[in-house]
Amino acid sequence: MTGTNGPIVEARRLSTHFGGESSGLSRFLRPKLPVLRAIDGIDLVIEAGQVVGLVGESGSGKTTLGRTILGLERPTSGEVRFAGENIEKLGTHDLRLLRRRMQMIPQDAAASLSPRLRVSQLLDEVYDIRRTARNARRSPADLLAMVELGPEHANKYPHELSGGQAKRVSIARALAMEPEFIVADEPTSGLDVSAVAAIVNLLVRLRAELNLSYLLITHDLDVVAYMADIIVVMYLGKVAEIGPAEGLADRPLHPYTQSLLDAVTRPGEERRTKLAVRGDIPSPRFPPSGCRFHTRCPFAQPLCREREPALEESGLPGHRTACHFWREIVSGSLPAGC
């Protein structure tokens, strides 16, 4: 399903940097650290009703992008528009109203739930914080039913829930304000295979029933390939590749995307490119010059160290990649390790 009502989220030239300045006594005790460039000039459009999957290694900036879109982190530059409204230019009242329409499912569901409150109190807390009138609230039983939990769970404490149940409660909290857009940060992390399948199917059903749009942040390429309309591959704060889920999964153009897909090839399947990502991802405080992936890329050329590649159309609708030599890599005329 693709959106038909126009963009619900638009990020333009979006950057979020941290640090770089010392204050007080710290100025004398330690040198100023370089700026941490968590996200660095990202353009992203999410249509209404669409699921955009965001993948990449830890340290790529995925969660920071999600938090910046929600207004939980302030961008260093660029802008985020939600349903056409520039979030940075909204007053306190309008921003409060807007926050009802966009919610987050946290990565660590158990840690996000206060251990001192029962599930019913955790669900009511969402309304209490926003001072929602009693007649405008869903009951805990109704919210639990939405995420396929019985009313008996309302009296439990978080430590009495399984990992899958805690994740469902966190989803119920996100749904309480009837949002239009949800950032789902690693919604299946820490769950066993059966629980992963159940949560994925729940999110798919909720999307269809409530016409939700998702930014799906995940390391699980199987999940993103199953749920997403669009896949965005991030590396060190930049978009390496973006395209329709089916086309990108079947024909990855960027060597980083190829290596990510290789890493999840199932036993008995032939690996498509036999690429291996060398070493660890560099620090976002010290990103490499030129193409940020060149320090780990088996196809790197001198140009890759000197000039940053632009996101380039591949000839397929909506499929773009940031690699100087993607044509040669795909055709096999530029072998790895040359």
Describe this structure in words.
There is one protein chain. The protein is globular. The protein has 338 residues and is of the alpha/beta class. The protein has helices at residues 26-29, 62-69, 92-99, 109-112, 119-129, 140-146, 163-175, 193-210, 221-227, 245-250, 255-263, 302-306, 326-331, and strands spanning 7-18, 36-47, 51-55, 77-82, 85-86, 102-105, 181-185, 213-217, 230-235, 238-244, 312-313, 320-321. α7 (163-175) packs parallel to α8. The strands form two sheets. The protein has an eight-stranded mixed sheet with strand order 6-7-8-3-9-10-12-11, with helices on both faces.
Q: Helices and strands in order, then pairings?
A:
Blueprint: E1 7-18, H1 26-29, E2 36-47, E3 51-55, H2 62-69, E4 77-82, E5 85-86, H3 92-99, E6 102-105, H4 109-112, H5 119-129, H6 140-146, H7 163-175, E7 181-185, H8 193-210, E8 213-217, H9 221-227, E9 230-235, E10 238-244, H10 245-250, H11 255-263, H12 302-306, E11 312-313, E12 320-321, H13 326-331
Parallel strand pairs: 3-8, 3-9, 6-7, 7-8
Antiparallel strand pairs: 1-2, 1-4, 4-5, 9-10, 10-12, 11-12
